[in-house]
């Protein structure tokens, strides 16, 4: 029996000239936070090559700003994937995510990632079944009813030995977000050896090798507490490689020495201070700088706004998205409105 080569999976790179904590690299003219993401993609590709693999798969949201792709983002991205395809000799498959699309529906004309075909990538804007490699690719679908019908169609027959790649909301990935997406159980029941899902920015593996790939890096404070990085898949085993790029973290006064080193050094650190004076702010900034923080954001929180004991709490990184989703659900809006609201929040974060 021929051994199956390992291959890599990345997702939700959201390539963009990010504004917060950024600067322009003097030598290249590239936004430093964009460069971090590009470097992580290259790191994933190099790991695939090192392990003897020949394929890198992206499960959607290559770019961030819908319908408005800056040349200063596109050009270094094309150059990177040219290197992956030509220097590393990898096959690169790129799935359309909702952020890659000019409109609500996935099609080749409105998919910004199609620009990477010129770099030698296979860009997927519609359902694609690769019978040779036993892979099914499903780009972003605008509507859960339509998505479930497509999944039912592509899962017909024996799917043992096959893998599925899609860009869609999946339940139970991020704490606090209501169950408006696909459940891990229904994905497992499709019968694939493994399912790799992009869209939500945290890595998690469920029963049956149903996997939320997670974003390759943190991008905003909405990502606090999420697991970012890339995946190597081999012999039905999913191995996650955490990002080496700076993470967004919320400072915890209960951290010990080792936790401060892990969570502060090299990262973007947010601190909430109750009724802080200017001296308090300056003191915490100096302290976190001495601990190696890349950047610090201090938020003043009046004591009167502190959470009451009887209030529900959610992860800080997902608080805004969760609040909007909860409000939309209570108003009776469907998943399309919810998805659009989350996209708007992402674009506000980017600005």
From TrEMBL:
Cited InterPro entries: Calcineurin-like_PHP, DNA_Repair-Maintenance_Comp, Metallo-depent_PP-like
UniProt cross-references to SUPFAM superfamilies, sorted A to Z: Metallo-dependent phosphatases (SSF56300)
Residues in coiled coil: none
Pfam families for the chain: Metallophos
Keywords: Exonuclease, Hydrolase, Nuclease
Domain Calcineurin-like phosphoesterase: residue ranges: 6-202
Gene Ontology MF terms: exonuclease activity
Protein name: Phage exonuclease
């Amino acid at each position: 029996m021929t051994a199956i080569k390992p291959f890599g999976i990345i997702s939700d790179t959201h390539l963009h000239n990010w504004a917060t904590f950024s600067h322009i690299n003097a030598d290249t003219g590239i936004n430093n936070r964009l460069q971090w993401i590009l470097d992580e993609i290259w790191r994933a590709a190099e790991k695939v090559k090192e392990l003897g693999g020949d394929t890198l798969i992206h499960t959607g949201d290559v770019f961030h700003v819908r319908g408005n792709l800056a040349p200063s983002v596109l050009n270094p991205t094309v150059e990177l994937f040219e290197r992956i395809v030509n220097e590393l000799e990898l096959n690169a498959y790129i799935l359309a995510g909702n952020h890659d699309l000019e409109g609500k529906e996935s099609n080749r004309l409105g998919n910004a990632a199609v620009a990477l075909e010129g770099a030698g990538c296979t860009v997927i804007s519609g359902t694609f079944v690769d019978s040779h490699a036993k892979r099914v690719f499903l780009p972003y679908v605008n509507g859960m009813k339509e998505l479930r019908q497509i999944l039912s169609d592509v899962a017909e027959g024996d799917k043992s030995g096959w893998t599925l790649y899609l860009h869609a909301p999946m339940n139970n990935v991020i704490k606090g977000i209501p169950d408006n997406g696909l459940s891990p159980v229904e994905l497992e029941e499709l019968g694939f050896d493994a399912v790799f899902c992009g869209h939500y920015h945290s890595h998690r593996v469920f029963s049956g090798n149903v996997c939320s790939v997670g974003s390759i890096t943190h991008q905003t404070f909405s990502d606090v507490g999420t697991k970012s990085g890339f995946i190597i898949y081999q012999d039905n085993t999913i191995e996650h490689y955490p990002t080496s790029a700076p993470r967004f973290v919320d400072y915890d006064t209960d951290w010990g020495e080792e936790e401060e080193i892990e969570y502060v050094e090299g990262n973007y650190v947010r601190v909430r201070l109750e009724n802080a004076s200017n001296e308090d702010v300056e003191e915490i900034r100096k302290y976190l700088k001495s601990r190696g923080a890349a950047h610090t954001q201090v938020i003043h929180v009046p004591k009167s706004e502190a959470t009451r004991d009887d209030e529900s709490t959610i992860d800080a990184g997902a608080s805004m998205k969760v609040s909007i989703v909860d409000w939309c659900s209570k108003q009776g809006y469907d998943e399309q409105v919810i998805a659009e609201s989350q996209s708007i929040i992402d674009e506000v974060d980017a600005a």
